[in-house]
Amino acid sequence: MHHDSLHALLVKEKLSLTRPRRIIFDLLLHKDPQSMQVLISRAANKVDRATIYRTIELFERLGIVHRLNIGWKYKIELSDLFVGHHHHFHCNQCGATHTLQANPMLETMIDTVAAKENFSPRSHQLEIHGLCGQCAGQPA
Amino acid sequence: MHHDSLHALLVKEKLSLTRPRRIIFDLLLHKDPQSMQVLISRAANKVDRATIYRTIELFERLGIVHRLNIGWKYKIELSDLFVGHHHHFHCNQCGATHTLQANPMLETMIDTVAAKENFSPRSHQLEIHGLCGQCAGQPA
DNA sequence: GATATATTTGCAAATTTGTCGCAATTATAT
DNA sequence: ATATAATTGCGACAAATTTGCAAATATATC
Ligand SMILES: [Mn+2]
Ligand SMILES: [Mn+2]
Ligand SMILES: [Zn+2]
Ligand SMILES: [Zn+2]
User: Fold this and answer.
1) Can you give the pLDDT at residue B138?
2) What is the pTM of this model?
3) In which element (H, E) is residue B108 found?
4) What are the tens digits of pLDDT across the range A94-118?
5) How far is CA A69 from the centre of its chain?
6) Residue A70 Ramachandran class (φ > 0 left, ψ -120 to 50 alpha, else beta)
7) What architecture does CATH give domain B85-140?
8) Chain A residues touching B105 at Cβ < 8 A
9) What value, to the nearest 5°, has the Cα angle with vertex B50 and ends B124 and B38?
10) Where in chain B is the domain with CATH 3.30.1490.190?
């Protein structure tokens, strides 16, 4: 159960799995990356705005979520700990965001490139922009 | 001259290279990624806040700049059209941002991965997080 | 270079987004 | 069940971003 891992991560820091934290986590589970505004409106009457900001900040610090550069404002999604590692493809035409499964060869190369410069990589984010299959077919 | 390419990109869209646009472009040239706030304060008394937002939005639409996820807030930098294509490494410890020269092998693989899923990649962004050489040496 | 036309800017106000203090509530430990 | 520490909701704030519109500036034409 995902809630168990979440609970474990929190307990390790002497923090507790509260109702608001569970609600926010559930909003993120199995969903595409969401903007703060969407999260806030989806949690309306359940969790306060301030708590959502505080929780996302906490979750990010613990590596439970991370934020993405899609469009003008950022979006939040669960980290690799909860959904398999993946990258994103964003269509410039229709605005759709697709998931790209992680490719072992590519992952290795990314770490290698960083190591070559004497860095110790811990995580990374790759966003590809262009045209999706649909949009590439039709004229603009 | 970089201003010529900038001018060409604007003219193609029936837009003009105005004083504020040139000033903002120059602020970005040869500089590390900058936050909106820094851009606003650096352009103080020269370009209005609203104009900076409008210009960055325009530049982004035309592919002249793109935004980066570095830490909590995003930053703006010139796109590959004006500075060589590169990636970023961000140190979780000291907060420094380093440039990673583009690696031909890696670049090819990124495009291949996207193409395999029937996407037509036009650009991409890779951000690596971890510890820099300095910080990896010393204990936390 | 002067004039006409369309675009762009600055300004100030409005809206949206993100933060903070603190009393009341909720979670863990005993 | 009680004690203790962590967490939340609720304003009130503060910061960031957007907008309408009259004035200023750029391009096209004469
Ligand atoms: Mn990866
Ligand atoms: Mn690249
Ligand atoms: Zn598309
Ligand atoms: Zn460092």
Assistant:
1) 73
2) 0.87
3) helix B104-116
4) 878 889 988 999 999 999 999 999 9
5) 10
6) beta
7) 2-Layer Sandwich (3.30)
8) 109
9) 60
10) 85-140
